[in-house]
Amino acid sequence: MKLDRRGLLAAGAAAGLAAAAGGTARARPAQPKARAVLKVSSQEGIIPGQSLAERLDRMERWDFDGLEVGGGGLPGRVREIREALNGRKVRLSAICAGFQGALISNQETERQRAMTTIKEILTAAGELGSTGMIVVPAFNGQTNLGNKEARDILVGLLRELGEHARAAGTRVLLEPLNRGEAFFLRQLADAAAICRDVESPGVHMMGDFYHMGIEETSDMGAFISAGPYLHHVHLASRKRNLPGQDDRDYINGFRGLKMIGYQDFCSLECGVIGDRETEIPKAVAFLREQWRRAPG
Questions:
Q1: Cα separation of 111 and 196, whole Å?
Q2: Residue pair 193/146 in contact by the 8 Å Cβ criterion
Q3: Out of 101, 123, 271, 280, which could bridge 113 as a Cys pair, Cβ 3.0 to 4.6 Å?
Q4: Eight-class DSSP state of 40
Q5: Burial class for 108, CB neighbours closer than 10 Å (0-12, 13-18, 19+)
Q6: CA-based diameter of the chain, in Å?
Q7: 13: Cβ–Cβ under 8 A, 6 or more apart, which residues?
Q8: Going by C-beta distance under 8 Å and a sequence separation of 6 or more, which residues neighbour residue 119?
């Protein structure tokens, strides 16, 4: 009997259940998963407009579902963003970083600065109903800790941040980056393993098609490895421009999202070649067509 990747994963999970119970337990019937949805979002700065209201007007015309905003200064923008989104189809998706310091810095003062500012942004994210706040543990040059020491410190700090996020009604979203930007945390499976070890409903993760194109061998496999921990996705072409502006394909990755029953947003984080008024709506249409073509 031939098994595809989904079949191998299911068989492995069933074997693990039996082994954990001394080989006497039978695998429980799989629960039906939700049907995946494509909710297209964009970072605020990509959309043209003199005000947030103007940008949201364009986003609604261009068939967007979500808005991603930066975390810098977010506590002071809660009222503005809430009022701008009131009564609209577009909802808030993720909050993109904006904190200070680094969680795995070799300097305690920098770690504490990160903890303080992340908590402030998480509180505001919860007030706005955001799916979560994107957090990179450290960029290249922000730490000289080795992987094991950095991971041990990160897991401990994330347990505290996870409790704060849970109480606020949102999540920390770990983001793997490519090796040119961060030596630590480069693949989705690694982020999922950290989420598993933290074991907090307030700590999950995201994936980014641009970084995945450098670090992963399969978009579909990467998303399957993330599984239920995945709560945000960034969209960009191979050259980090709008989807559809080079040969980057999303069908394989979208198939993976469909296989895990993905329910959250997929958000533009990219540059734009050409006129934004023309090219951004084209990118949204391109993504919806790629989703339609993805099996599942």
A1: 22
A2: no
A3: 101
A4: E
A5: exposed
A6: 65
A7: 27
A8: 161, 164
Q: Where are the beta strands (DSSP E) in the chain?
A: 39-43, 66-70, 91-96, 132-135, 172-174, 203-208, 230-235, 265-268
Whether residue 5 contacts residue 220, with contact meaning beta carbons closer than 8 Å, is answered with: yes
277: amino acid identity, one letter: E
Distances from the Cα of 116 to the Cα of 59, 101, 102, 119, 133, angstroms = 33, 9, 11, 5, 14
**CA-based nearest residue to 287, from 62, 54, 45:** 62
Question: For 203-238, what is each residue's pLDDT tens digit?
Answer: 999 999 999 999 999 999 999 999 999 999 999 999
- How large is the average pLDDT for residues 65-73? 98
Per-residue confidence (pLDDT) for residue 5, from 0 to 100: 39
pTM over 0.70: yes
Phi–psi pair at 43, nearest 5 degrees: -65, 145
DSSP string computed for 63-106: T--EEEEESTTGGGGHHHHHHHHTT-S-EEEEEE----S-TT-S
The SS3 of residue 190 is helix
Q: What is the 3-state secondary structure (H, E, C) of 244-259?
A: CCCCCCCHHHHHHHHH
First to last CA, the chain: 21
Distance separating alpha carbons of residues 128 and 221, to the nearest angstrom: 32
As a whole number of angstroms, the distance between CA 14 and CA 52 comes to 49
The token duo for 33 is 């998963």
Structure tokens at 176: 């793997």
